[in-house]
Specification:
Layout: H1 9-16, H2 20-24, E1 39-42, E2 46-49, H3 50-61, H4 70-79, E3 82-83, H5 86-95, E4 126-136, E5 141-150, E6 155-162, H6 167-180, E7 187-190, H7 194-197, H8 199-207, E8 211-214, H9 224-236, H10 246-263, H11 274-286, H12 345-362
Helix pairs in contact: 4-5, 6-8
Amino acid sequence: MQYKSKTSMDHLCRWAEVAKSSLYYPAHPGPRGIRASTHTIVGGCGLVENSLVVDQMRAVLSMDYCIYGYRKMTAELRELEYKINPKKVYRLMKEAHLLSGKRINVQGKRKWVKHRRIAAKRPMEYLCLDIKYIWVQGESRWYYQLSIIDVYSRRILCWILQRSVRQNDVIALMRWLDLRFGLKGVIIRNDNGSQFIAHKVREVLQSLEAKQEFTHVATPEENAYIEAFHSIEQSELIDRHSFSSFFDAKRHIEKYMHWYNFRRKHGSIGFMTPVKKWDEFYQKTLFTFTLSGEAEVGHAGEQPSRNNQTNEDDRQGKVQITPYPSTSSLLTMPSKTQSGSYGTSDELSVANLFEKIVQTIRG
């Protein structure tokens, strides 16, 4: 102030590093905008205090079985000749703690879950996926784990651990699953997360001929299979370890996923491991084909017509035989003799025994 008469205010603000706007327009002591009204019009032109309007609201809510929100309360007050808008009703009800539970509005057309319990008859019929938060103590931050489970075998098909999970990550996992197992006709169940309801994700799944269904809002029990896995992972891994870094957490999760899929017995599938349940189905499916004694003439890569199916529990008329991911597909197919016919039952049992030995060695 002592230099105010010697130079311009612009120079003084520059020297003092003070914005001119803060000098001429000081901070407002109260909230911005027009002050809230204290009275409400009722009837022809009468005015009543807002406290009387709140008393009228309490009288309405005191009726039996009445749990009105602010929209229905607005309609009720207007029938009583109050000239009031929904925003003011919401403000008065909020100040008086009269609001009921908030409703979550859902936008867009989606296929909703019809049955909470899934009766899966084969692998790759139903898949469930969800995101779990994992705390990394060494970095003092959360990471996101996206896991996809096969409902029939309870096997975790794939998972990722990242700082964030976006729609492109979901699309990449779906394309990987389609290349590895095939997603045609598979029903994929997920919640209403932004990563799953994205238009790009839904378009990709539609192009892969997969069927996507959404759980209802605030009903995690409809996605119970992946939620149960996350609960198991929480109690067996996360609650028992403190992760020093992202790489430490990822290393532990990799070991746990191998334990869960290959070693841990699951009670809901007959105290079997998920991988054993998965392999058991395809080993049974393999022997449902009738094998003739003579080979038919065909071109290279052509499937002979002698492999007629005897079971009727298939998808789209054909059983999709998916070989074991980490072993050769030759271990799960009958050997072919020099005469062109497939091997005997003894040779098939030897092949299956050899496969079991390989799996045992792999641990």
